[in-house]
Design brief:
Helix 6 runs parallel beside helix 7, helix 7 crosses helix 8 and helix 10 packs across helix 12. The protein folds into 4 domains: 54 residues; 222 residues, P-loop containing nucleotide triphosphate hydrolases (Rossmann fold, 3-Layer(aba) Sandwich); 155 residues, Rossmann fold (3-Layer(aba) Sandwich); 63 residues. The strands form 2 sheets. It has an 8-stranded mixed beta sheet, with helices on both faces. It is 52% helix and 13% strand. The longest helix is centred in the last third of the chain and has 84 residues. It has 558 residues and is an alpha/beta fold. Helix 17 links the parallel strand 13 and strand 14. The N and C termini lie far apart (143 Å). It is built from 19 helices and 14 strands.
């Protein structure tokens, strides 16, 4: 009897549907719990919203290896206000003001103590906790503020704490625009290689491709590369970025200016979806914003100072205005003035490779210990020349803009711009080779009438840095504005005359056309009158003929 009742109940559709829904709900909960337990993303940038979207969970899940909370919120706000730090984003950790109280693992703290590292710079203090928190990061700061260590220390922690998938290819990828900057980063990374057993490699054009390929095949943890050489190895399947879960774009604005955007995008397409990207730039133009929007997703932006490019305030900027034929004499005068100030090292910039060689030869003939560097030099020659300059064997380096970025040499006290660069941004990067790490520096810049169009932008840079602006520079800017105004006047008068001429031609043509149409109308009217006259004549002729016929019929003689 009871069995029959159960059978009837099971045959009812509502009960079957209820049991089916309950089974599905239980299965869903078990699946969700198993997914949560299996998902482990230490040091990952994948957001919990992405997990919720895939598993349709109702609660977030996130895990961190280290605590990034180091100070009270009020203290953090005071520190940011004092150092002019602007932070944009969500879940922003407090800055590291001291090494001992930071969230770094013990082996990093010991390493910093061995290196004699006392206190983080401004970009390091706020950049380190964000990078360790696993967030995508954009840092906008001047050159010479310690950006290299700001991303390399978290990179080492990323390698040590996160177990990367097996296979070839680097775990950390650092892209740099020039060979000099890539080599500079490599020198900093080599300290970790010796102390923390982290393998690093730098690849760039101009060096032996076979040697670099062999080192890549052996395996590497940190790969520092220029975009062109990296894509060369990617296209030839020499290496892969399938394990690169920590990516750094250093001097992103410069790489985009040099036309490396296709290579950068190709490289980023090859890294895993679960990755962390850090981007450092001196400016925040729209091209860099588009790149960040396309590949970083949600990120934290840290601005040290203004987002607009500004010169280091520790540099005294001196501008000399002269005629073009007096330029070399003015340069000699500046050199003798600097030599009397007991200078350390001097960096001289020129715009062309040919003049770099010519000026280097002239200086050496006059007893100055000068060496020259530009893009036509081989990598071995460039390394040797930079080594001589760093060691102080040659205290004067003459260079093109290849040395404007990424050249971090201690003891550069003076920068001389024999030729003014094409843009004020390049000018700021040039003079930024001095006054680094809080030291003072001096820059000398020679301008002629040919540089009048850049005078206004240079004045703006100097005003922002609170520098004394010479009257000759103001006069040069005024002269340029007046010349442009005088050029516009004839053009405006010419346009006015052309307008009046076209206006007269238009109205005269319109009047002539109207007169012609009126004459045509009169001709058509006359023609119409003639047709009417002909028709009337024909009508009168027919009427007269008919009348004559009637008269003929009525004539008595008929």
């Amino acid at each position: 009897m009871a069995l029959n009742v159960v059978t009837r109940l099971l045959r009812r559709r509502d009960l079957c549907k209820l049991l089916s829904d309950s089974t599905k709900q239980i299965h869903r909960e078990v699946l969700s719990d198993s997914v949560i337990k299996s998902v482990s993303m230490p040091y990952s940038t994948i957001s919990h919203e992405h997990i919720l979207k895939q598993t349709r969970l109702q609660r977030p899940y996130i895990q961190h290896f280290y605590s990034t909370k180091t100070a009270q919120q009020t203290d953090s706000d005071d520190y940011r206000s004092e150092h002019n730090i602007t932070v944009i984003g969500e879940d922003i950790p407090d800055p590291y003001t001291e090494i001992d109280s930071s969230g770094f693992p013990s082996y990093i703290k010991e390493f910093l103590k061995e290196q004699g590292f006392a206190k983080p710079t401004v970009i390091q203090s706020q950049g380190w906790p964000i990078a360790l928190n696993g967030q995508n990061f954009v840092g906008i700061a001047q050159t010479g503020t310690g950006k290299t260590l700001a991303y390399l220390l978290p990179a080492v922690v990323h390698i040590k704490e996160k177990k990367a998938r097996r296979g070839l290819g680097p775990i950390v990828l650092v892209l740099a625009p020039t060979r000099e900057l890539a080599r500079q980063i490599e020198q900093v990374a080599q300290d970790f290689e010796n102390s923390l057993n982290v393998r690093c490699l730098c690849i760039y054009g101009g060096a032996s491709r076979a040697v670099q390929a062999e080192k890549l095949r052996r395996g590497v943890d940190i790969l520092i590369a220029t975009p062109g050489r990296l894509n060369d190895f990617l296209n030839s399947n020499t290496t892969t970025l399938s394990r690169s879960t920590y990516v750094v774009l250093d001097e992103a604005d410069r790489m985009l200016d040099m036309g490396f955007e296709p290579q950068i995008r190709q490289a980023l397409e090859g890294v895993p979806k679960e990755r962390q990207i850090l981007m450092f730039s001196a400016t925040w133009p729209k091209e860099v914003r588009h790149l960040a929007r396309d590949y970083l997703g949600d990120f934290v932006q840290v601005n040290v100072g203004s987002t607009e490019l500004s010169a280091n305030h520790n540099i005294t900027q001196i501008v000399h205005v002269c005629e073009q034929e007096e330029k070399l004499a003015k340069f000699k005068e500046i050199i003798h003035e600097i030599s009397g100030e007991n200078y350390g090292k001097m960096l001289i910039f020129a715009n062309t490779k040919k003049f770099v060689d010519s000026l280097t030869t002239t200086l050496r003939k006059n007893g100055w210990p000068a060496v020259g560097i530009h893009g036509d030099k081989s990598q071995a020659q460039r390394d040797k020349i930079i080594g001589q300059f760093k060691s102080g064997h040659s205290r004067i380096l003459v260079a093109t803009d290849v040395a404007a970025r990424g050249l971090d040499v201690d003891g550069v006290t003076h920068v001389v711009n024999y030729d003014f660069p094409n843009t004020s941004e390049d000018y700021i990067h040039r003079i930024g080779r001095t006054g680094r790490q809080g030291n003072k520096g001096v820059s000398h810049t020679i301008l002629t009438d040919e540089n009048a169009r850049q005078a206004r932008s240079l004045i703006e840079v100097m005003e922002e840095a609170k520098q004394e602006i010479p009257k000759s520079l103001l006069d040069l800017a005024t002269f340029y504005n007046m010349s442009k105004e005088s050029e516009r006047q004839p053009k405006w008068k010419s346009r006015q005359n052309n307008y009046q001429f076209n206006r007269n031609n238009y109205y005269q043509g319109y009047r002539n056309n109207y007169q012609g149409n009126r004459n045509n109308y009169q001709g058509k009217r006359n023609n119409y009158q003639g047709i009417r006259d002909d028709e009337e004549d024909n009508h009168n002729g027919r009427f007269n003929r008919q009348r004559s016929i009637r008269n003929r019929y009525n004539d008595d003689d008929y």
